[in-house]
Write a structure and sequence with these properties.
This protein is mostly helical. The chain folds into 2 domains: 210 residues, Rossmann fold, CATH 3.40.50; 90 residues, Tyrosyl-Transfer RNA Synthetase (Orthogonal Bundle), CATH 1.10.240. The protein contains 13 helices and 5 strands. The protein has a 3-stranded parallel β-sheet. Strands 4-5 form a two-stranded parallel ribbon. The longest helix has 30 residues. The protein is elongated, with a radius of gyration of 22 Å. The protein starts with 10 loop residues before the first strand and ends in a 5-residue tail after the last helix. The mean pLDDT is 95. It binds tryptophan. The site of tryptophan has 11 residues, from strand 1 and helix 7.
């Protein structure tokens, strides 16, 4: 029944919400490994602009950040291989068709149990919209529509992937094999980068202290300033001890991630030197690590025609795959194709 090419690589899919500029933590923990992942798998990288609507973003900001996220995918080279696809979710309307179908095969109780829904409706009590509630079924549609084998998920999305698997299995059980049941993708784990100001917490775009987070679009000046004001301790010795020297150890992790040096090497390099030199070295290493990416991003963002062409080409390739699954599901549930 399937006409798939047996030589085909496993398909990995990931969508990212364009609600803010990614952080250095996102870059080191995930993004910089994507290029390698995209070499070994057939990948889809999508900008989840429809999901972003659940928090009613400023329209101009949403447009800008959607384009910027797609540009970041391109700057990382994720669309180099013909088999890989970078796209914007709303450019492939079939996601909405399939998500409606899946809504009808997801129980109210199941969706109500989603921790993220409970948390978000508590923290945004003024806008508990239905989209927030059906967010996981749209996410399930994103995944199932491309017959993805693997989905890289952080802790906060594990429960959503589990729901997606349950819905896929239920549907397959009722109507026969329709969807690939996706697995979490366990790739090479990047290091966990902590806030520069509160090094016990993960570096996050929503850190209340803006000096704690380095954004991928920060200028070298901003990066130096943030590193200089990073929290350390009063011992004035560069030593890796994440329990007692949380701040210094986090900076060492950053330096190690950007230069490939070992902790022992770093300790030796900075023996007898103060934190001033050390922080500057960390900042310079970060600036150097981000430079090629930032230069490429600037180039892509300037080339509006290229970016638009990238979006169109990605949407066309994604749609071809998406329609195949959607039509299959439509037929199975009894939607009449006249
Ligand atoms: N909900 C995901 C997040 O906020 C984004 C997302 C939407 C996603 N659709 C997806 C992730 C499909 C993986 C697969 O991080």
């Amino acid at each position: 029944m399937t006409t798939e090419n047996p030589q085909k690589k496993q398909r990995v899919l990931s969508l990212i919400q364009p609600t803010s500029v990614p952080t250095l933590g996102n870059y080191i923990g995930a993004m910089r490994n994507w290029a390698k992942m995209a070499n070994d798998h057939d990948c889809l990288f999508g900008v989840a602009d429809l999901h972003a609507l659940t928090v009613r973003p400023d329209p101009a900001a949403l447009r800008r950040q959607t384009a910027e996220m797609l540009a970041m995918f391109a700057a990382l080279g994720l669309n180099k291989r013909e088999e890989n696809i970078v796209f914007v979710q709303s450019h492939v309307p079939a996601h909405c068709t399939l998500s409606w179908i899946l809504n009808c095969y997801t129980q109210f109780g199941e969706a109500s149990r989603m921790t993220q829904f409970k948390e978000k409706s508590a923290s945004h009590a003024d806008n508990v919209n239905v989209g927030l509630f059906t967010y996981p079924t749209l996410m399930a549609a994103d995944i199932l529509i491309y017959q993805a084998n693997y989905v890289p998920v952080g802790d906060d999305q594990k429960q959503h992937l589990e729901l997606c698997r349950n819905v896929a299995e239920r549907f397959n059980g009722l109507y026969g094999p329709t969807f690939v049941v996706p697995e979490p993708y366990i790739g090479k784990l990047g290091s966990r980068v902590m806030s520069l100001q509160t090094p016990t917490a993960k570096m996050s775009k929503s850190d209340p202290n803006p000096k704690g987070t380095i954004f991928l679009t920060d200028t070298p000046d901003q990066i130096v300033k943030k590193c200089k004001s990073a929290i350390t301790d009063s011992e004035a010795s560069v030593r890796y001890d994440p329990a007692k020297k949380t701040g210094v150890s986090n900076l060492m992790t950053l330096l190690a991630c950007c230069t490939g040096q070992s902790f022992a090497q770093i300790e030796a390099d900075f023996a007898g030197k103060g934190y001033g030199d050390f922080k500057l070295a960390v900042a310079e290493a970060i600036v150097a690590e981000l430079r090629p990416f930032q230069a490429e991003l600037a180039r892509v963002l300037q080339d509006k025609a290229y970016l638009e062409e990238t979006a169109r080409k990605g949407a066309a390739k994604a749609e071809q795959l998406a329609l195949r699954t959607t039509q299959k599901a439509m037929k199975k549930v009894g939607l009449w194709a006249a």
